[in-house]
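User: Okay, second chain of the day. Same drill as before: sequence in, structure tokens out.
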Amino acid sequence: MPGTNIRFGWDPIIGLVPWLGDVTAALFACVLVVAAHRMAVPRVVQLRMLLNVMIDVLLGLVPVAGDIADVFWKANAKNMALIERHAHGPQRATPGDWLFVVGILLAIVAVAALPLIVVYWIVRMIGGAIG
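Assistant: Same drill. Structure tokens below.
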């Protein structure tokens, strides 16, 4: 953006086209994941890359705010940095890679469990009011 230190690529621009832009951006982002697979990047790093793409897609689903978030959540830049760090020979995944993946998986489990906890709480409250 002129007059600022904010830089961005084509992802936020193409994301302005509802649905088609987000799907196209996600497909192009997956090209980096396929390249990482072919370079034998550790699987946990590939999973981290997929999670970066997933977060980018989920942010992009929110109208207007998702387009703004695309400027700041640069999944392709993050994924390219991961490829550059891990593609030069057989390197092990870093603790940060594992922490990111485990953190996202725990967040997914928490989000999946939340509705069950709320339903249990409501049924218990109703059962307590009746009995």
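The CA atoms of residues 14 and 21 lie 5 Å apart.

User: Thanks, on to the next one.
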